[in-house]
Amino acid sequence: MIIKRNINTYGCLIALVVLFCFSCKKMVGVPDPVDTITTSKVFATDAQATSAMAGVYSQMINLGLGGGNIYSGFACGSSTMYGGSSSDEFVSYSPDPNPTSLIKVESHPLWTSAYKAIYGANDVIEGIAASTAATLKGPTRIRLTAEAKFIRAFSYFYLVNFFGDVPLALTVDFNQTARMKRTPKAEVYAQMVKDLEDARSGLGIDFSSSKTSDRIRPNKWAATALLARVYLFMGDYQNAAAMASEVIGQSNLFQLKDDLNEVFLKNSTEAIWQLQQSDPTGTGTGTTTPEGYGFLPNFLTTGISSVLFSDELLQDFENNDKRKIDWILRVVKNGRTLYSPYKYKKGVNNIYDPLTEYYMVLRLAEQYLIRAEARALGAAGLGLAIDDLNVIRHRAGVDDLSATLSKAEAIAAIEKERRTELFAEWGHRWLDLKRTGRAHDVLSVLQRKQPWLGDEQFLYPIPDAEIRANNNLSQNPGY
After folding, report:
1. How confident is the model at residue 29, as a pLDDT?
2. What gap in Å lies between CA 264 and CA 359, rounded to an integer?
3. Distance CA 184, CA 206 (A)
4. How many CB atoms are located within 10 Å of the residue 245 CB?
5. What's the rounded Cα separation, in Å, for the pair 130 and 257?
6. What digits encode the pLDDT tens for the residues 365-385?
């Protein structure tokens, strides 16, 4: 089935994304159920269990890599690409000011890859629980189970925010998952909170679980940071502020980088959790991050990026904002000045360079912004909220906001600050517009999104292949 969509006016971009989509069988492509593998063998030792969990991370970041296939997974570029294109961040280089997009929804990389991660996490949780091997030690069982629950919550966060109600699969038993109905979004959020609270209890407080102490395995503070975000999206402002404060308080581990060019380096002090890309073949994307590879211009070919920023985004930056200077690349092509993401400095022309950047997933600046919004909307008051915004603004080199802002002015300032700080990262702008109820007012008036096809666009269609395989799944309205 082909569905005419207007969530993405970035026609050539979507053609690229769809090219790299992969289809799935059953509800999602998953590993064999845990009762069909030799659990005692797969999870017999600490090393084997650790390797199984490492495989989940590797699949998340490397899905589709090795042959240059990017944007094929929610954790390796798709969330940013689809979210930015659906919102008012990205535009097309096409001379047609309003290209029409046709999106084939037979399968969808956001849906399929997120469920692959969920099933991988469930596999680890159930495999460890079923293993009776004495050589699988207690501390390893606790830590890896906590990591898996963190990944499950992380994956469900993106599923519910792109698709709405989704099946809540907490097992790899195909007999239980094959015919699942969609679970109400509130129940999925409740499970995220439970998983993240469990993860907070089971994870360490530093980065020692990684052999190299790199920031590539989630610890307690990664679970806390994600929980702060989840609480914010749930409207639980007291808990959102409390969780963000816990993370911000770990100043021995996390500090904002004064130099914006250092924020996205591997093991940056701003990094709460990063994913380490790996391309063992030495081809494809090499040592670059998915978004570095996909977003930076290829000077050997077109010389322009596949992702260009909208005028609306560019106009939101104040004079002398270092984020516009350091995080946005300016290229003149055929007499036009084009702007594209430059948070990652290594792209398609650097695939054989030494590995200097990891893929940033959670970082400290977001926690200040979460706390600012939670304080402004909760009981903490506007003064503390403005203080948090000014921490981020000071780093960006722009003037402090006045302490006399009204609540409405503070809320508008928070939206703007989130936009100029978190652009081209994980679809933040798209998710923010939807959760705050601002999506219609902001997007429906844009010329490039005309004709407006209705607010049903704010949820993506459930892939056709999934509905055919499971008639208990219902489609989102408008599709």
Report:
1. 40
2. 8
3. 35
4. 18
5. 44
6. 999 999 999 999 998 889 999
